[in-house]
Amino acid sequence: MAAARGTTRGRAGAGCAGDDENVGLMMDATNRPPRDARTALMRGFMCRCPNCGQGKLFRAYLKVVDRCAACGEDYSHHRADDAPAYFVILIVGHLVVPWVLIVEEVFAPPYWVHAMLWIPLILGLALGLLQPVKGTIVAWQWAHFMHGFEHAAHERARWTKQR
């Protein structure tokens, strides 16, 4: 009976009648308070720490810092892998291909004009979006306690005490 009360998810007080201890609580299935995903994603897109918004998320173009300099959040275990590149290809393709087709149908320029127009645009968009998209993916992982971030909340408390 007590186990059933602890597994309620979403609605407060969805356990047994008279179960007032869970009223007003919003926790996920692993009993962690939810993180604000929208704020985290915006901070990640701005290449800032999704936890505090103050520290830088990258130490180099695509190298994520090991810890936030402002709040101490650990990022050494993130797993963005190839996802940023896939999402950037998807975004840039959806932005550029319609314009390539429109220019071809309306103006029918020679191929060298297409190359002069689209290659710099594609390279600029891809390189410009790669870091913000990677920051957003790291922030998504942080907001949803994925790939080691579920332990980071406990580790951060110990790390700040040792300072």
Q: Can you describe what's shown?
A:
By secondary structure, this protein is mainly α. The protein has one domain (37-162). Helices cover 53% and strands 0% of the residues. The chain is built from five helices and no strands. Helix 2 crosses helix 4 and helix 3 (83-107) packs antiparallel against helix 4. The radius of gyration is 22 Å and the shape is elongated. Residues 1-23 and 155-163 have low confidence and may be disordered.
Features:
5 helices, 163 residues, elongated, disordered C terminus, 53% helix, mainly alpha
Which runs of at least 5 residues are low in confidence (pLDDT < 50)?
1-23, 155-163
Work out the helix count.
5
Number of strands: 0
Q: Hey, roughly how much beta strand do the residues contain?
A: under 5%
How far is the N terminus from the C terminus?
43 Å
General shape: elongated
Level of helix content? 40-55%
H/E series = HHHHH
Average pLDDT confidence is 82
Biggest sheet: strands, sense, closure? none
Report the C-alpha radius of gyration, rounded: 22 Å
What structural class do you assign from the helix and strand content?
mainly alpha
Q: Any idea how many domains?
A: 1
Summarize the structure.
The protein has one domain (37-162). Helix content is 53%, strand content 0%. The chain has helices at 2-6, 37-45, 83-107, 111-143, 149-162.
